[in-house]
Amino acid sequence: MPQIIEITDFSAPELDVYARLRETQLLNRHEPENGIFIAESPRVIERALDAGCIPLSFLAEKKHVETEAKELIARCGEVPVYVAEFDVLTQITGYKLTRGMLCAMRRPPLRTPAEVCTGARRIAILENVVNPTNVGAIFRSAAALNMDAVLLTPDCSDPLYRRAIRVSMGTVFQIPWAFLDEQMLWPEDGIAFLREQGFKNVAMALRNDTVNIDDPVLQKEEKLAIILGTEGEGLLTETIDGCDYTVKIPMSHGVDSLNVAAASAVAFWELGKHNSTGGE
């Protein structure tokens, strides 16, 4: 049976994960076995549970305990469920909860780049993408549009930030991903690693010496790593120079570029549509 606990003391340490600790403190990327993340909304929480993530507690609007949250709470045994009325929760969290429910969960063990590359034919590489909204949107596109895995350089925003999880609609729990090792210099060592895994590297960049995104040569490649850069600055020159192909998305009406999340959707659709594995 779940432990339903009505919130009366805002200073209770059990609520620190929701109200007072910064996400960088919670996630603890350097000691992932001690890390915690916050999943928001029933759909996202469900996907996290389906992926094997371990719940620690719930924070829910009182009216949802017997409605939208009921089945999820039932899946989690005796995990504490902290409840309050809407106005109280807004005061605690600082803004409206998406569909009235949060869940604090144990961070899953980090995978290695080699693990997520095993068996993959199309993967996305994020280079220094620091905006959690962009990271979440890219993950959602990667999961939907035939990418098998995602790799991130160490300076990228963590996919388990609350906003990234929410924007991804929980797909960060459905597609394998890993951070490139901080000891692996990017781009030199990282691109060499991808080549060792059998990938041809594709730089998405605004250069004139590019291959058309629908070039049959790209579709015929057995394994492609599609590399996307941070908003504004794009990819490092060294990254572009080290890749096997450079691809630019054709633009019209004088528009010079797309947001990196939008560009990722176009690239994944075109370069992944013949990928037979389709991810997990």
From TrEMBL:
Ranges where the tRNA/rRNA methyltransferase SpoU type domain occurs: 123-268
CDD domains (UniProt xref): SpoU-like_rRNA-MTase
Entry keyword Methyltransferase: yes
GO terms for MF: RNA binding; RNA methyltransferase activity
Keywords: Methyltransferase, Transferase
One BP term from GO: RNA processing
Full protein name: RNA methyltransferase
